[in-house]
Amino acid sequence: LCNMTSIYNGVSVKKNRHGREMYVAKIYHNKRTVEIGWYKDEKLAAKAFDKYVLKYGLDKETNFLKKKLAQ
Description:
Layout lengths: L2 E3 L5 E5 L5 E9 L2 E8 L2 H14 L16
Antiparallel strand pairs: 1-2, 2-3, 3-4
């Protein structure tokens, strides 16, 4: 499988089992890698990463959403 980086935090580019390029949102949390999801769109994957960071109040840099929106 191809594994490339994205311009966004927490997002990488991979090919799924059908050979299609997809964007995977992942984060290291609670001593394990959490796969947030696979997306066709890079920005959607980045937003999913941001939502996860804000939901769990993690000290990670977000892509679009600001920390203040978590409250």
